[in-house]
Specification:
The structure holds two protein chains of two kinds. By secondary structure, chain A is α/β, with parallel strands linked by helices. Chain A contains eleven helices and ten strands. Chain A has two domains: 147 residues, Nucleotidyltransferase, domain 5 (2-Layer Sandwich), CATH 3.30.420.40; 166 residues, 2-Layer Sandwich (Nucleotidyltransferase, domain 5). Helix content of chain A is 41%, strand content 19%. In chain A, strands 3-2-1-4-5 form a five-stranded mixed sheet, sandwiched between helices. In chain A, strand 9, helix 9 and strand 10 form a beta-alpha-beta unit. In chain A, helix 2 runs parallel beside helix 3 and helix 5 packs antiparallel against helix 8. Chain A is globular and about 65 Å long. By secondary structure, chain B is an alpha/beta fold. Chain B has one domain: P-loop containing nucleotide triphosphate hydrolases (Rossmann fold). Chain B contains three helices and seven strands; from the N terminus they run E-H-E-H-E-E-H-E-E-E. Chain B has a seven-stranded mixed sheet with strand order 1-7-6-2-5-4-3, with helices on one face. In chain B, helix 1 crosses helix 2. The radius of gyration of chain B is 14 Å and the shape is globular. The chains are: A alpha/beta, B alpha/beta. The interface between A and B is medium-sized, with 33 and 29 residues.
Chain lengths: 344, 139
Amino acid sequence: MRILAIETSCDETAVAVLSGEGEVLKLESSTVRSQIDLHETYGGVVPEVAAREHLQLMMPLLHKEVAPDGKGIDAIAVTAGPGLAPALRVGVETAKALAWAWQKPLIPVCHLEGHIYAPWLTEIKDERGKIKVPEFPALALIVSGGHTELVLMTDHGKFERLGETLDDAAGEAFDKVAKMLSLGYPGGPKIAQLAESGDAKAFAFPRAMLDRDNLVFSFAGLKTSVLYTLRKHEDRLNDPKFKADIAASFQEAVVDVLVQKTLRAIKQVKPVSVILAGGVAANIALRERLDQACQKVGVPLFVPEFKYSMDNAAMIAVAGYFRALNGHTVKPTDLQADPNMDIV
Amino acid sequence: MTYTSHSAEETQKIAADFAQTLKGGEFVSLIGDLGAGKTTFTRGLVQALGGTVRVKSPTFTVMNEYPVDHATIKRIVHIDFYRFTDTSELGALSLEDERRPDTVILAEWPNIFTRNPIVPDRTILLEYRTIEERQIKIN
């Protein structure tokens, strides 16, 4: 089966073609056009601006990836949500039109499900020569600008949410602290870089919810705490050592909470694999700490390649492929973009 | 009216009471520092109007919308002007299209502009007192 996948949930326009047979997948092409420069002016993603850009890029991208008559494509997968409503609609309406014109099945995919499937895009083999992919039940920690959640995947297409953030997402906290430190946007990589030269123990920022026996996250209090620490030390705002210490201590607090909560979830649901997914999976400190923690309890950790932890259509194609295998297709007229779509 | 809140739960309760005074079509300004509780207030308001989706800070996405289940209000639009620098950038948001009788617009950081681009129907002022305590003024 050959799948065309489209992703436009935020500020990346992405198209991919993937073919699969049973469990064996082959990614034929994957293109991502980032709009990051465009949104830098606003310091955030403006939905209407993103949608206009998606509209402009969509047909040229498709033209490069597939034949105009859809020959050789067996199904079309598209991110139906969650995301920015006007941005999502560009991808969804394009996919609907193609499915209608080509008379092919249409597969709506949840963006978060796509992130969870990113580790399937690997060529790493085990000692028997089998591609190494997560086995079920798998525990997924999804961390991005919009999400921080723990999801249990019991089989293809079967998900259960164990916990999520009550307020800000972890990636959002990174962006806000970066702004407070005048580091610019996007904040994640800039904080991580600055943190390398800082002392992670310089400031004791709060680790919210760690004392509570649940799988719930909260990062709003941490953000506020960083802000008031900066206020208290206004005279040191131009001191590079001070800024590096703040960045390192802040990052340490986020990583601590993410790792501890994941360990707690491992204890609770006893998964046979752990997946780290979403844009913040690119954070080296988080990857390393989570990997050490998983090794200690003997559960393998799967982290997607960097290019597949950011938004892309290849991961949507994988999720769509397994959905198609299980007959999860819809009629083009029945699909609507759902900005608040849930994984379960 | 001026309230004192001692927790996020209390801030949400105050927001829920305020929600009962809305009919739809209002533009509400939410003014307060980072961490003062603007998003927490919005969460309480959306829940009180029958919304079930998770309210997230719109700092990164600039504008979120949440469906709600109320007799006359069907949608909350949650905007954050925090990253804007000039009112000339506002055209990108098509605000006039969002202003509808079945919609309440909540805007964080309208004070980032020297002059509020839209005259608000209601204004909520949130002030940080201590880690736990906030003063909330509703006009």
